[in-house]
What we know:
Molybdopterin biosynthesis moea protein, domain 2, 4 domains, 7 helices
Amino acid sequence: MVSINEALQIIYKEVTPKSREIIPIEASVGRIVAKDYKARFDLPRFDNSAMDGYAVKVDDADTIVQLKEITYAGDEPEALFNQGEVIKIMTGAPTPNGCEAIVPIEDVVVLEEGIKLPKNIKKNMMIRWRGEDIKSGKTFLFAHNKITAYTLANLASQGITHIEVFRRPKVVIFSTGEELKAHYEKIEKHQLYNSNAPMFYARAIELGADVSYLSSAGDSIEELKSSVSNAKDADLILTSGGVSVGDKDFTKEAFSQLGMKTFFSGIDIKPGKPTTIGKLGNCFVINLPGNPLASMVNFEMFVKPTLLKLSGTKNFYHALIETTLSSDYTFRAGKNSVILGKWNGSTFSPIANQKPGMVSPMSLADGMIVASKEIGFLEQGKRIKMIPIKISLESDKEEDFFIM
């Protein structure tokens, strides 16, 4: 059995991103960029006007000048204009040679004899300079970052049509137990609906994985080995149940017979101690306990960073939100305890009744805190660090989340 931190360190060390692919930028939102991208040219590509206004000479302040021409965005500007002249210019239009400032339209007075300029004209005002946003040759997108809709603006501004990204992790999920039935099947009195697999399926998709679901495996070693063989081309096999010490808990044995290298079996965590992580060929394997809440806690604690690391992102560590406890909370000391709770933006409220086999607390939880085994009581107002669940938040730095 390993500690929570030891388990995470093994994940950080052993898990690596998968292969790469090149896709259109329009299909890349949410993906992780696989290499650095440098600007092909300056942005803006030329000096241009930040306002609808007039290109002027500074020395013409507080005088009446004559309109020479009008320049629109996309036009090639007049090569030069002289003292006593102005060029009306629209936002984004290239500034003409000799332009010393742009005066907004609302700051001038149009008269019959010409255009009266204001008294105060500052040199270079309202001019957007070539390269002030991005310089040619500068790296504007770094590898291992998630692509957003706003990333696409940078890519498109450089005329980039396709981008190299890490392939989405391929995940296969199945549960063990002949007592389990899919939620769309008929159920008998002695059977249960499988709530874990749909939960893991949806959560893995939220985290950017391509997910397949195999119907529940039986409780014999041969049936389990058959299910594993059907999932052998995955990047991660995720199972639920059959990892404890019951007469039919054969999951670990089935993987062992197929040659899985076990990194650890059992974690000093409550709930979810019987969690196993290993590798079968090039495929990582995580065996979670069957109790829904216990498996959910361990999914968030260990499966989430595994999927993030597989995806290629640099932000695979647990992000932490500093908050305070809303009320006193007493629990059983002696184990490293994960406590689910609600968070209202300022305080964390532990969910009153949260047992390993429960389902209902999971949908209520905004986040979780981790208490060290030495304590069994948290007082109201205590400063704590929460690992968010409902908020999509990850970090590129490892931080200590234990409450001591």
